[in-house]
Amino acid sequence: MTAAITFDHVTKKYLSLSGETTAVEEFDCSIQEGEFVGIVGPSGCGKSTLLSMLAGLFGPSSGEVRLFGEPVTEPSLTIGYMLQQDYLLPWRTILDNVCIGLEIQSRKNAESIEYAKQLLREMGLEGTEPKYPHQLSGGMRQRAALVRTLAVRPKILLLDEPFSALDYQIKLQLEDLIVQTLDKYKITAVLVTHDLGEAIAMCDRVLVMSTRPGRLKNVFEVPEDIRALSPLDAREHQSFHQLFRQLWEELQDEE
């Protein structure tokens, strides 16, 4: 079975006036369709670099990145990318904001607009369609950003610390919402985060990276008894605390 995502001995180097920096080195990993994988590691270890290569923003210096068996050579319509900030355009209504990807792809029509409205309802944003971003709370804006990402029906969702700017309660609510949505629409996802609890509560596997140059140091399977729970309930399970301790100790070795 062809993996949804493959990193095949990927190395990424950056050149600057001060010299050459290796951000990621010999990163080797496969992610199956429908899987939700978290990536944790020290700051600067190349986590976001991996997502950028997946999104086709730039290529590896060596090795190969593949989506469904095909090399990534440019940005792909199968990818949805959600960042730390919502980046909603202040002069557009919420409905117009969530449909912007459809416009760019020339896919905005009555059917796709109705799908976007359905997603807004599922995210608890019904009635916000004519409003502007400044009229919404931070949590509502981030949910609207998620709808914008999902409206183009991506097969793969990339999440680069999407909850880091939110209050803890809102963050937990969004974690639940995203897990439910990914499960409903069978979307493969990769989450980059510094929050170990978030990675355990949301993901099927957690990849641990070393300090720069970032290598794949270890892989932890999240137990089925945790995965069967919502992210909120998962945090109360005994297995959660055991895995948290393992991840913590793994990362402490990198300090």
From TrEMBL:
Bilayer-crossing regions: none
Taxonomy, superkingdom: Bacteria
Domain ABC transporter stretches: 5-236
Keywords per UniProt: ATP-binding, Nucleotide-binding, Transport
UniProt GO molecular function: ATP binding; ATP hydrolysis activity
Protein name listed in UniProt: Spermidine/putrescine ABC transporter ATP-binding protein
The organism of origin for this protein: Effusibacillus lacus
